[in-house]
Predict the 3D structure of the following.
Amino acid sequence: MAAYLGEFEQLLLLAVLRLGSEAFGLDIARELETRAGRSVSRGALYTSLDRLEDKGLVRWRVAPGTPARNGLPRRVYLVTPAGIAALRASRDTLRRMWRGLDHLLRDPTP
Amino acid sequence: MSGPTDRTPNGASGSTERTPNDERRPPRAAAWLLHRALPHGVRGDSILGDLIEEWRARGGTRTASVWFWRHALSLTARYGSRRERRVEPASAGNRSIHMFLDNLRHDIRFALRSYAKAPSFAIAILATLALGIGASTAIFSMVNGIILRPLPFPEPDRLIFANELNPNGIGMSVSWPNFLDWRARVHAFDGLAAGRTNPFTLTGREQARRVDGRGVTSNFFDILGVRPSLGRSFTEADDRIGAEPVALVSDSFWRRELSGDPAAIGQRLILDARAFTVVGILPIGFRYVRDTDVYVAMGPFAGDAMLLDRGNHAGYFALGRLKRGLTIEAAARELEAIENDLGLQYPQTNSGIAVHLERLSSRIVNTVRQTLLVLFGAVGFLLLIACVNVANLLIARGAARQHELAVRAALGGGRLRIASQLLVESSLASAAGGLVGVGVAAALLRTLVAMAPEGTPRLDEVRLDPTALLFAFAAAAACGIIFGAFPAMQASGVSGQHVVVRGRSGGALARSHRLRRGLMVAEVALALVLLTGAGLMIRTVLQLTHVDTGFRADHLLTMQVSFRGERWTDAKRVAFLDEVFARVRALPGVANAAAVLSLPIDGSQWNSVLVAEGQPVPERRELLPSAAMTPVTAGYFETIGMRLVRGRLFTAADGAQSSRVVVINEMLARRIWPGEDPLGKRLKQGWPETPGTWREVVGIVADVKVDGLSELTPLQAYIPFPQSPTSDLAFVVRTDVDPASLQPAVEAAVHALDRDLPVFSVRTMDRVLEASIARERMAVLVLMVFAIVALTLASVGLYGVVAHGVTERTHEIGVRIALGAERRHVLGLVVRQGLSMAVLGTAIGVAGAIALSRWIEGLLFGVTATDPATIVAVVAMLLTVALVACYVPAWRATRVNPTQALRAE
């Protein structure tokens, strides 16, 4: 049984997946802002990533820094197989819950 | 982005571009904060890097920096508390600092929440602190500005003021020849100068004006240590008899009247119809005692026959700069010896005369010192009361939370953690109170300065004093910390379990009760002392406003004129006054008009010894009586509303050529001719051997107050103005309408006759009276405010203690009622307990007030400092308020529902 994922955790994992091999903190935040319309505090961002890491759902590797960041290193995130499984489980749960309710929630202005 | 290692952009982007790192940096403090909060190593570094990169991507602008700060704070908040978990090797010290900061943040948040939950407690503590800190800071700023701060001259402590004392020990000015002898013989000073106020009429410009002037010896400015900012100072040559008249002018006069033009040096000023050459401009902000426009050297006056008369004390005071290392006592001894020699050398004029020395700084503030010190004392009491109240509130709160604290201790809350949390709470209250206190202080200070009696010295030097603020704040904070810690110590001292099982009469609880009751007694005592002071001052002002002045002060307009210059011969002045008063009396709304040398209340301008015909001259000449000589025009007594006791008043027939007459006051009649009829008797102004005219007493008038309301009436002799015409006069105009409304008409009547005669100091007599007791009024107002605040605080405190006691004893009271105690017994029980504190406090307070009475004595009039009526009234008032404060919670106690109280167990 995969770990339960909160909504923000799901969004984070999806953002990392979308960014492919370039998912470092700044881009993850931008992805959330542009695609999910979420302005996210960096405090919440990094502590949530830490939590996902603790659960074994993401891992990261170090990439060298650039002058624009005073030469400080980057951490590029990857979703682990356990992360993928957790996402899948969450999606399946949602799907089950959605099934048969589409007519109730249909957008009135198609 | 360029390569990962090279931090310098290559030249392609243009030579103007510099290293971005040097050009702009993210906010340094925020970066530092992040550095402290984020985990060490690549984790933290990468987060910081992300932030910096984005900051730069956002343009590194101000907005970007705000953004940076926001996220730095969110990261600090999130990571600050987690850091230990993620530490890659961190030092133990570092870790504990982080834990401390983390706890502090929690404590502050917790304190804010707990204050929000008990807003009335928060407001009470805030208001108490704000009032205490605000009032004490304002008053201290006042005292500091006027009394404590040194004068703005170099080494002000070496500046000594000296004058002479008449044989009765009354201060008077130094006779000019005596001053010259002092200066020639004395060694204790680096220099000795003389000076006197010398107002001038300034003419030769568009409108004649009165200017404040001072005649000084040429070394006056050297002794003060002041050099003109432009031109030259006075030289010895300027003091020689017959020297060309020269003047120094103040910077403000120079800017105002001489348009700030450096070419003003060498210009002529016409002062009292004499031309003075301006030789220099004094530095900006220079002032000696009060603002003065013009200083003149002695040249034009040094040869005056009046000045050279050794028996004439013409208004000069000496100012010396003490030699380094000498004490004022040594200087006094030397001058006394010189004065003794002079007494032997010139017995006619100098016997019995003594010298008086004082530091300039203390001389300047003599009149207000006592008022300010009493207020200062009062403010100390207020601050104490505020502190006691805060302590009481905190202890009560601590006691109420005993249970909560015990539970926390039982659940594993460390003693230190609980104690530190309580400390944070009380420090937070102190800080907030101090902040509001600054506002209170500023507002109060503005009010005080506005209310200060006219002529209070150095008032413009009064500023809100940061040291005072700090002091009051520290006092309140210390109080908050000490008493904030009290429940903390108790909480940590009591074993958790003990209190959790509601040890209702635990030792700690009893201890806190004793302490609170003790504090309450102290607070009541302090409040009583303040109330007594306020009561005494109120009675003083009441007495003063009911003093019989001897004249009718309502509907009187007064103004000063001064006839200066050669053209105002005696005859011309007399004729001018006749003409002016004829015109003024014809004005609609005017009932009568006359003139006098010195107005009542305002103080006498001319005091002189006098001799009564046929009475023995006392062996010791200094025992000759001295009287306030007062030339008046015909109609003066009627105009001002004085009462004729016997004989007649002056009429127009008492002219310059007619027989010499005098009207005396009752005081003089009693003193010189006790038990005799003075009418027809004769007296002479001056010493027995000085030539003069004998005057026949033609009338006796009732005494009027001469030197202010609180002073005894001196002997007074009124002389017809034409027989002794002075050059300074006050007009008094009795009106049927509002006196102030007639000012333009009366001034116009004067200027219609002479355009160049300055009219100044126009006041209604009511205002003269009011100004004379302004000092007392201010003391009353301040003390009253303090007393009311003290009474409020004390009663609120008392209410709090009693109410708290009732809450704690709900169970016991419930049992009593259940067992059949009547409600009035319960009422009596609670009220008695509360009142016992008030009564004990009152008793201590009365003792304290009596012990402190001598401090306020000098401010009182018509009432003693231990006036029983005042003390009884104050005690009654305090106990009444205390009774109400106890009754309300007691009444609530009787409403206790026994079944509920018992079930609560």
Summary: Strands of chain A lie at 58-63, 74-79. The mean pLDDT of chain A is 86.
